[in-house]
Design brief:
The complex is a heterodimer of chains A (337) and B (356). With 337 residues, chain A is an all-alpha fold. Chain A is 72% helix and 3% strand. Chain A has two domains: 109 residues, no CATH class; 220 residues, MetI-like fold (Orthogonal Bundle), CATH 1.10.3720.10. Chain A has a two-stranded antiparallel sheet with strand order 1-2. Chain A is elongated and about 85 Å long. Chain A starts with a helix and ends in a 7-residue tail after the last helix. Chain B has 356 residues and is an alpha/beta fold. Chain B has two domains: 236 residues, Rossmann fold; 106 residues, no CATH class. Helices cover 33% and strands 20% of the residues of chain B. Chain B has an eight-stranded mixed sheet, sandwiched between helices. Chain B has a four-stranded antiparallel sheet with strand order 2-1-4-5, covered by helices on one side. In chain B, helix 4 packs across helix 5 and helix 4 runs parallel beside helix 7. Chain B is globular. Classes of the chains: A mainly alpha (337), B alpha/beta (356). At the A-B interface, helix 9 and helix 10 of A face helix 2, helix 4 and helix 7 of B.
């Protein structure tokens, strides 16, 4: 088991490292291709004429005249060991590991910006995930028990509708109903759960519901097809022949087997979602990682884009890692070595 | 036990009901292509301590019959009619919940493919003690002890350790032993074994059959052994029922069926079976054609499309008149055939038996 975890962990680290290399390279190549200095993407402006002494000094200050591997090492060692950031004029800023650099646009450490934004996104994703997993699996299971019945038809038509509607439709619709028409969920800004759980919950309900609506639909369809297949298996017949009650047969024997592949998809979905909440955050005006990245892209704020990309990749890799480990426990046939 | 199920163990005419009585059982499945008549008017009786073999080709309705006895068609789209009396209780009309109470406790079942019949995600031991816990009010610890005892009884070596193994860690023979342990842990009075040895190699087959026989002797239970292996029937069973196209075409004691069979289909089965005492050069004689469609069951005798003896019957009776199950040469031996009994015996003695 330990060996299995170690091997998977090593693989995860390699993937994260590769992602860091690729993102770093992309953001080095872009300035070269667009014939601007990387300095522009770093501080957001070209303060001096190109080829001037001052510009050369700045390029040197940020290390853009170093070979690519040295620049990468500077970037990586910053994340691993921290670094001191200086523009040569102001007081140097001590940035401890993991240091993703400094946003000269926002005059803030990227790490600090992400630390403020991440809880918003994570609250949103985890809450939505719990909701869609429970809702989707429940709808799928009930649909599967009597295929073709009214419950099944309503469930499947509903989920087809849900999966076809994008967040920028369901989101404003929910806002229109619950915030503007009924007024039951007045516009509240996000507060961390540690500060005010009630307001945190109120600000999160609508994003959760609209995300769960979208994702839950897929889970309902998946659960239904898996469940129909499982309920036709020989071991379900055995369970019935033993005299087990219907709920036991359905949940302990049927759902237990049908849910296994769903766990895999759940891990990947959750991991992907953390890095792709832009639309939801924009619709509900939440300042999460998605909002942070879209703002950084608009402002060509390279350090922030780099930071968010790497964090999103790390979350996805961790989610997959957990699923791998979990799978060994859920499915005893998975060989652990 | 709920009282409505406790019907008298006597028939309306005052005669005592046998332990298991199946009367005019019909199991039909409506499909898009038409009504599939998997079992059509099957009747038989079985007492405690007896082993009944049900033989027939694939799709002759053997497994569907056994599932009907366990009431496992309830909740599906199958239409089940007729009567099944088990120890004075009627099963066809009973509710799912009433039959559920009998499953495992009164009647146990061993399935054909033990790998797909065991849940892949639970340990073998857990699945066995689960069967015990449904019907017995004991602690999980006691159930585990009982399951280990059962595993030892069916010959699993090192049972306390193997208890935690998963089905995929067991060999084919051990899995079937575990299935038997699961089916017998509540000591059911009726055991249905649906092709219990089909997925196993020959040496293991013999062990499993021996095990079923041993446990049968110990519990004095009634056993239904479903198989298409006539050798297994000859060795194990007291009575035999031959099924063809969802109907019983011949039934009787093992000796009747093997030494004086009267139905052309049974003759065909015997002729297609290899024998140790036969000249090795002799070719087996298969039954020509294929089993009938259960949607468009042939009119007249179900076997008429493949029967080589239809010319022995006057006129077109085989194709037009459905023969009844009638007593053959000896009491208890019943045959569904238009050829008169005396003529059938003659055909067997002169044409079939010498060529076996």
């Amino acid at each position: 088991m330990i060996r299995f975890i170690a091997v998977r962990l090593l693989g995860a680290i390699v993937v994260v490292w590769l992602v860091s290399v690729v993102t770093f390279l992309i953001f080095q190549i872009v300035p070269t291709l667009s014939h601007t200095s990387p300095v522009y993407y770093y501080i957001g402006k070209i303060p001096f004429p190109p080829d001037s002494i001052q510009m050369k000094a700045l390029t040197h200050r940020f290390g853009f005249d170093l070979p690519l591997y040295a620049q990468y090492w500077h970037f990586l060692s910053g994340i691993l060991f921290g670094q001191t950031i200086t523009d040569g004029v102001s007081t140097p800023i001590q940035c401890s590991a993991p240091c993703f650099g400094y946003s000269f646009r926002q005059h803030q450490l990227v790490g600090t910006m992400m630390a403020t934004a991440a809880p918003v996104t994570i609250s949103m994703c985890i809450g939505a995930a719990i909701l869609w997993l429970i809702g989707g699996v429940a709808v799928g299971t009930f649909s599967a028990l009597k295929p073709g019945s009214l419950v099944d038809r309503v469930g499947m038509t509903g989920s087809l509708a849900a999966v076809s509607l994008p967040i920028f439709f369901t989101g404003p619709l929910l806002l229109l109903i619950f915030e503007y028409t009924l007024g039951v969920l007045p516009d509240v800004s996000y507060l961390p759960i540690t500060q005010d759980p009630a307001q945190w919950l109120r600000s999160m309900i609508l994003p959760w519901v609209s995300l769960a609506f979208l994702f839950g639909a897929l889970y309902a369809r998946l659960t239904r097809s898996n469940m129909i297949e499982t309920m036709g298996e020989d071991y379900i017949r055995t369970a019935r022949a033993k005299g087990l009650s219907r709920p036991t047969v359905i949940v302990r024997h049927g759902l237990r087997a049908a849910i296994t592949p769903i766990v895999t998809i759940f891990g990947i979905d959750l991991g992907t979602l953390v890095g792709s909440t832009v639309i939801t955050e924009t619709v509900f005006n939440l300042r999460g990682l998605g909002y942070l990245s879209i703002q950084a892209i608009q402002q060509s704020d390279l350090p922030v884009i780099l930071g968010v990309t790497i964090i999103a990749a790390v979350v996805l890799v961790i989610a997959n890692f957990i699923v791998d480990i979990l799978y060994a426990f859920i499915d005893p046939r998975v060989t652990v070595y | 036990m709920t009282t409505p199920l406790l019907a008298p163990a006597f028939r309306a005419d005052g005669s005592k009901r046998p332990f298991l009585e199946v009367k005019d059982l019909r199991v039909h499945f409506p499909t898009a292509d038409g009504l599939v008549k998997s079992v059509d008017g099957l009747s038989f009786e079985l007492e405690r301590g007896e082993i009944l073999g049900i033989v027939g080709e694939s799709g002759s309705g053997k497994s569907v019959t056994s599932l009907a006895i366990l009431g496992l068609h309830k909740g599906s789209n199958a239409m089940v009619t007729g009567e099944i009396w088990l120890d004075g209780r009627e099963i066809v009309a009973a509710t799912e919940e009433e039959v559920r109470d009998l499953r495992g406790s009164e009647m146990g079942m061993i399935f054909q493919d033990p790998l797909s019949s065991l849940h892949p995600f639970y340990s073998v031991g857990t699945q066995i003690s689960e069967a015990y816990l449904v019907h017995t009010k004991v602690s999980k610890k006691d159930a585990k002890a009982e399951a280990i005892r059962m595993l030892e009884k069916v010959g699993i070596p090192n049972a306390p350790n193997r208890y935690n193994d998963y089905p995929h860690q067991f060999s084919g023979g051990m899995r079937q032993r575990a299935m038997i342990a699961m089916a017998l842990i509540c000591q059911p009075q009726l055991l249905i074994a649906d092709e219990p040895t089909t997925a196993l190699d020959v040496t293991v087959q013999a062990q499993i059959l021996e095990l079923i026989k041993e446990l049968h002797d110990e519990l004095n239970s009634a056993v239904i052994l479903i198989t298409h292996d006539l050798g297994v029937v000859a060795e194990t069973c007291d009575k035999v029922l031959v099924m063809y196209g969802g109907q019983c075409v011949e039934k009787g004691l093992v000796d009747d069926l093997f030494y004086a069979p009267e139905m052309p289909y049974t003759w065909g089965l015997l002729r297609s079976m290899p024998r140790m005492d036969r000249d090795r050069q002799t070719r087996l004689t298969p039954i020509p054609g294929s089993p009938p469609s259960l949607i468009n069951v042939p009119s007249g005798c179900v076997f008429n499309t493949r029967c080589p003896f239809t010319d022995r019957v006057d006129g077109d009776k085989c194709r037009t008149v459905h023969p009844d199950l009638q007593q053959g040469a000896t009491p208890g031996h019943e045959v569904r055939c238009h050829i008169p009994t005396a003529q059938r015996q003659e055909i067997w003695l002169t044409e079939i038996s010498p060529n076996l």
